[in-house]
């Protein structure tokens, strides 16, 4: 089958726009999670070495802006770029939920940085609850990011996608279970509201390790989705230049999309 005629250019442009936005979205998520992995790795190294130079680095004001702020904002923008890329209800629900969770993270980050931002909101309080809420959102976001990245990789016929996605989601679920256990055990329930906690060094150490492993896996998964989107776009551009016949679906995911005609169908996963 030949490539679409010139009259199909609007569809072809829309297809390019879809995968360019997916490429940018997953690229931003991979970058933000990579910084989160770096942050968690530094905390883990601090607990292992007791080197206060690492502690001073993590507490330095510039670290919060050079590492913490990009994590918050790149994941927000990245999740927004993924929202609406397909009309599939499952995709829309997960991408929308991911964006809302990242938006909540921005609000929590703004409350922590209100003085630096010049907001003058006064004493917000609930420090323990805000910290634990942020941790809970992390694990839900990891699961959703891994799920979306896996779906796109399966859609683009990446052979390694199912196993990598399954492993990343299992780590996210394990991290969520570990967080829930620590939250129940460390919260001083007898003091009532606002909630207060008594963090244990063992729990912080375990959380840092699980966070490091999970963020690393999800970051690599999002990076792989970004790479395959870029690869597909390159194939489409090559076919536009060559005006050649399409090959079978098993040989090229880009060609398979063209062979569907007027649609880029979302497979039954």
Describe the structure.
The chain is mainly α. The chain has one domain (6-116, 125-259). It has helices at 9-49, 52-59, 61-82, 89-112, 114-117, 127-155, 161-186, 201-242, 253-259. It is elongated and about 65 Å long.
Give a short summary of the structure.
The chain is mainly α and 269 residues long. The chain has helices at residues 9-49, 52-59, 61-82, 89-112, 114-117, 127-155, 161-186, 201-242, 253-259. It has one domain.
Number of strands: 0
Strand content: under 5%
Largest sheet: none
Mean pLDDT, to the nearest integer, reads 83
Radius of gyration: 22 Å
Give the low-confidence spans. Answer: 1-7, 244-250, 258-262
Tell me, briefly, the overall form.
Answer: elongated
Into which percent range does the helicity of residues fall?
over 70%
Element-level helix/strand string = HHHHHHHHH
Distance between the termini: 27 Å
What number of structural domains do the residues give?
A: 1
Name some characteristics of this structure.
mainly alpha, 9 helices, disordered N terminus, 269 residues
Layout: helices, strands, pairs:
Blueprint: H1 9-49, H2 52-59, H3 61-82, H4 89-112, H5 114-117, H6 127-155, H7 161-186, H8 201-242, H9 253-259
